[in-house]
TrEMBL record:
InterPro entries: LysM, LysM_dom_sf, MurNAc-LAA_cat, N-acetylmuramoyl_amidase_3. SMART domains: Ami_3, LysM. GO terms for cellular component: outer membrane-bounded periplasmic space. This is N-acetylmuramoyl-L-alanine amidase. It catalyses: Hydrolyzes the link between N-acetylmuramoyl residues and L-amino acid residues in certain cell-wall glycopeptides. Residues 224-240 have a biased composition (Low complexity). Residues 250-262 have a biased composition (Pro residues). GO terms for molecular function: N-acetylmuramoyl-L-alanine amidase activity. Pfam families: Amidase_3 (PF01520), LysM (PF01476). Its EC number is 3.5.1.28. GO terms for biological process: cell wall organization; peptidoglycan catabolic process.
Amino acid sequence: MSALRRIVPVFMCLLLGFTLSTYAYADNIMRVRAFSNADKTRVVLDLDFNPKYSTALDGSTFIIRVNDVDNYKSAQSKLELEQRSVIKKFEKNLSGDDVRYLFTLEGAGTPNVFVLKPMNGQNYRLVLDFPHTALERKPQPQEEVKVLDQQTASKLVGTGQGAGIPPIKVITIDDADAAEDALLSSLSTVGADGIRTMTPAQAQAYQQRMEQIRAQQAAAQRLAQQQQQSNAQAQAQAQAQREEEVQDTPAPPTPLPVTLPAPNPYIIAIDAGHGGKDPGAIGKRGVKEKNVTLAIATQLAKYVNSNSRFRGRLIRSTDVFVDLDKRSEIAREYKADLLISIHADSVASGSSARGASVWVLSNNRAQRENSKVLQGEGSSQLLSGVSEVLSSTDQQNPYLAATILSMSSDNTRSEGYTLGQEILDKLGKFTKVHKKQPIHASLAVLKSPDIPSLLIETGFLSNRYEEIQLNQPNYQKQIAYCIYQGIESYYEKYAVQRIKTRVESAMRTGAAKVVTHTVQKGDSLSVLAQRYNSTVALIKAHNSLKSDSIRIGQKLLIPEVR
């Protein structure tokens, strides 16, 4: 009995070890995932084994059968698909321990199916790429057949017969024509009358040799086409490998539209860079900046409009071209509190640059734009309050006009820089940033002295990995969500700067008036600013004061907010 007690625990341990070992080496389908872009829908089966599979096409249904799956019963049976996917229905069927996945397609070409081996901590991946349009394969003209390399061409050299010239390496139709001409010359005679003639033996030799030449040429064409197809498949495989090296991005929270927006929301103009005839940067895979920016801008508007305190307005909502100066004008028409321009960067080939960045207007460009406004080259384009104040003061007091415009410009650039820091902080928690601080630059879309503006480079299309990421819908949503979080953080943390000053807010809406006050005992600039709902800086600017000192009986012009 005691011996049996010793044997049972040992047997149980061995059984448990066998069970764990069997489970550890089980052939499981771990996950099925899908995403779509403008060109295709990709489905990936994540596996912990190198799969054996077969495929079939039954009408509009594509079937892939994965053999000998241990978790065939519990393997994933549902798949989340985007609206633009060509897959309209996804089903799972079983045949013994084989798993059959059925994809009902709409207007798709034959999918490209391949297996990627484990790398970078990932398991085996069975990849299915469904093109969004059927591929049109046009036959290539014979003249376009590529010349083969010397080693391949040498295998196609004919032996030659009869009185013909030495063999010619026939690898293109031009070579075949040259060989035919040379053969004809060597097997015929031109008489005094200029007519070329052949003997029966020469004619027979000519016919035999021509059949060889044409056969060699046809074989060369087939081999060249096979090489082209092989190269194309290898290139597609390499591109697919890079796509899978870039991890799928999980989707951020879904924005929900508000039912009761605030009466005076914080208005954010969102500019999708480029558009229409201007594609912007184009990556090596053909991803266009104008499409990336519009996708991110559209998602950003959805997040902004999910907050009752905000209202997002798109500068462009379709693939149209909008002039750079017109973009600022549209923002003013919206009475925007912020202007955010979305872009994707690009650099010369060979650079490894990557990461998001934020750009704000440089001081030199701001001063040049302010000078234009003071000279009348655009003051009418400013928000109504600033424009009206400048119009009413520049003739009477040029110093005052310059001061007001400088204050507005400095404040908007300061706001843009602070907002840019908040957005970079949020982006840095999700993706790589190119620079940790906003970058000053002379950019046309940022030149408005009356609207805090910044330009966001969401990444580099010239970087092969970021090009893939920027084309992924979930990655675009995450970038938009980070920008929204930065705006929200700025709105909550910097209320004083966000509202600017009460006087500047009044100037933007035309709600300020100037009153005359005679200084009395106990008055000071701070007391007067509080009494008239103004600011010390603006009172000093209106009266050309260089210090805070005032005297009894002095008359002051004070901008008052109604």
